């Protein structure tokens, strides 16, 4: 039966409208992955010297054992971001005399066919066979291979389980991401514990007691069973819908109800972001960039440069507007026709976009206030760039949205996905980054840094106060291009 499933998936691929483009993309991706594999294998062969150079005061075997859990921790983070869910159109098979366990087993097992499962073996096996095998013997080397396989399987199914649960409740994805970031900060920044020491504690004992390698294998088997059970319980669509109806939606935001229909539109867009892969990735990446200031404000070379602070302030307080807003209205391309024939006025639609951008920029500004630790001037610069993003960046993004007629498939991930990306996105990046410095740099060269910051903030504030005028301008501009945008969104 599994052979039949594979045949059907191949036929579905070749018979699709975009088979040629899909094949070209797969070949391109295969070449990139092959190149990455070569780099990973090279890193594996030279792992001993690399570890000796990075950790000169530690024995290589200690560094190797300490690196293992660090690798798998960051691999899990990468899997959650990049690994695609294995898919099968199960509806046609549910009415046929096929056992549910067969369908679920196929879905679960195909989850192992991920390039992520190759990385640990390509990276660790060269060192195991070249160094660990001669030094510690065949049993120790075999136990390490078993442990690596177990942890890889565990990561694989844990990531798939998190992604599947996140498709029903977007807050799960955000919570898991926040927990992982806190764990990283607890080790690297706050020094509460050391993942390296924990890793050595386990893998160092695997060298002494090879039977411990069975533990990761058991963890992998448990996660396989959890995925199998979850898929089996949620195989039918009505079971999923019943669970959704049983609980109140997690994305209902009482605060938005005070904004009427505009608030309802924002709440629906929040649901769109949290329930779909690519917009959710845009949100998570925006949150990750809140740590962007650590690259600059901890670097002595940049501490005296206000220009860098202007760039960082603009980037951090406006990253969601830039990252998510560059694809307005492509996120809603699948149902944009319905929006245009509904009772919703386009003016309210624009107000909803502005409200969402305002909430996102305000939240980002609040999250970046701790950078005042590096100096109160940073907070002032962030405030000026926050006003700039609210008044200028949001309007520019919506202006370019009227020139983007490329649809986006929300179910696809963000990794190596250029769907919806056109020339307008590249121009937009330039248009957003250049104007603040056209204003700031000349005044700075004249020694009027304070005036430059004030002017940036004043322009942003003026944009906020005249938002009604800009909404009328954007609405009129949209109606000129409305039908070409709708036609572009209909092209799959």
UniProtKB/TrEMBL annotation:
<feature type="transmembrane region" description="Helical">
    <location>
        <begin position="140"/>
        <end position="161"/>
    </location>
</feature>
<feature type="transmembrane region" description="Helical">
    <location>
        <begin position="103"/>
        <end position="128"/>
    </location>
</feature>
<feature type="transmembrane region" description="Helical">
    <location>
        <begin position="281"/>
        <end position="298"/>
    </location>
</feature>
<feature type="transmembrane region" description="Helical">
    <location>
        <begin position="451"/>
        <end position="470"/>
    </location>
</feature>
<feature type="transmembrane region" description="Helical">
    <location>
        <begin position="379"/>
        <end position="401"/>
    </location>
</feature>
<dbReference type="Pfam" id="PF18940">
    <property type="entry name" value="DUF5687"/>
</dbReference>
<keyword id="KW-0812">Transmembrane</keyword>
<feature type="transmembrane region" description="Helical">
    <location>
        <begin position="23"/>
        <end position="47"/>
    </location>
</feature>
<feature type="transmembrane region" description="Helical">
    <location>
        <begin position="168"/>
        <end position="186"/>
    </location>
</feature>
<protein>
    <submittedName>
        <fullName>DUF5687 family protein</fullName>
    </submittedName>
</protein>
<feature type="transmembrane region" description="Helical">
    <location>
        <begin position="421"/>
        <end position="439"/>
    </location>
</feature>
<feature type="transmembrane region" description="Helical">
    <location>
        <begin position="310"/>
        <end position="331"/>
    </location>
</feature>
<feature type="transmembrane region" description="Helical">
    <location>
        <begin position="206"/>
        <end position="226"/>
    </location>
</feature>
<keyword id="KW-1133">Transmembrane helix</keyword>
<feature type="transmembrane region" description="Helical">
    <location>
        <begin position="59"/>
        <end position="82"/>
    </location>
</feature>
<dbReference type="InterPro" id="IPR043742">
    <property type="entry name" value="DUF5687"/>
</dbReference>
<feature type="transmembrane region" description="Helical">
    <location>
        <begin position="352"/>
        <end position="373"/>
    </location>
</feature>
<keyword id="KW-0472">Membrane</keyword>
């Amino acid at each position: 039966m599994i052979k039949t499933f594979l045949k059907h998936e191949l036929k579905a691929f070749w018979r699709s409208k975009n088979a040629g483009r899909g094949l070209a993309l797969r070949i391109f991706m295969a070449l990139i992955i092959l190149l990455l594999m070569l780099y990973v294998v090279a890193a594996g062969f030279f792992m001993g010297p690399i570890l000796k150079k990075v950790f000169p005061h530690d024995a290589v075997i200690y560094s190797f054992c300490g690196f293992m859990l660090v690798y798998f921790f960051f691999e899990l983070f990468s899997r959650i971001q990049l690994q695609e869910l294995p898919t099968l159109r199960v509806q046609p098979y549910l009415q046929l005399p096929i056992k549910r366990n067969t369908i679920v087993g196929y879905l679960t097992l195909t989850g192992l066919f991920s390039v992520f499962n190759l990385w640990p073996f390509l990276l660790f096996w060269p060192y195991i066979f070249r160094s660990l095998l001669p030094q510690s013997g065949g049993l120790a080397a075999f136990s390490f291979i078993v442990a690596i396989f177990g942890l890889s399987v565990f990561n694989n199914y844990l990531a798939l389980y998190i992604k599947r649960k996140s498709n029903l409740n977007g807050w799960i994805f955000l919570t898991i991401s926040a927990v992982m970031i806190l764990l990283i900060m607890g080790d690297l920044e706050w020094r509460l514990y050391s993942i390296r020491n924990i890793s050595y504690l386990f893998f160092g004992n695997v060298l002494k007691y090879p039977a411990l390698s069975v533990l990761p294998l058991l963890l992998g088997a448990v996660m396989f069973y959890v995925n199998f059970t979850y898929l089996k319980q949620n195989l039918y669509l009505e079971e999923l819908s019943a669970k959704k109806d049983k609980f109140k939606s997690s994305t209902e935001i009482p605060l938005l109800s005070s904004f009427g229909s505009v608030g309802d539109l924002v709440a629906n867009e929040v649901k769109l972001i949290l329930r779909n892969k690519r917009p959710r990735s845009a949100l998570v990446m925006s949150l990750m960039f809140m740590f962007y200031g650590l690259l600059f404000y901890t670097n002595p070379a940049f501490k005296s440069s206000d220009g860098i602070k202007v760039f960082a302030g603009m980037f951090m307080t406006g990253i969601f507007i830039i990252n998510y807003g560059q694809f307005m209205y492509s996120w809603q391309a699948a149902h944009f026709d319905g929006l245009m024939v509904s009772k919703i006025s386009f003016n309210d639609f624009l107000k909803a976009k502005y409200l969402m951008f305002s909430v996102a920029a305000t939240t980002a500004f609040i999250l970046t206030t701790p950078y005042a630790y590096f100096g109160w001037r940073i907070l002032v610069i962030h405030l000026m760039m926050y006003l700039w993003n609210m008044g200028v960046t949001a309007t520019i993004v919506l202006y370019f949205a009227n020139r983007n007629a490329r649809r986006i498939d929300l179910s696809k991930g963000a990794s190596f996905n250029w769907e919806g990306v056109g020339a307008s996105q590249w121009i937009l990046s330039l248009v957003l980054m250049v104007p603040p410095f056209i204003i700031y740099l000349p005044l700075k060269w004249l020694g009027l840094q304070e005036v430059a910051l004030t002017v940036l903030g004043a322009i942003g504030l003026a944009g906020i106060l005249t938002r009604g005028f800009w909404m009328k301008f954007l609405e009129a501009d949209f109606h000129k291009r409305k039908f070409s945008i709708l036609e572009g969104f209909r092209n799959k």
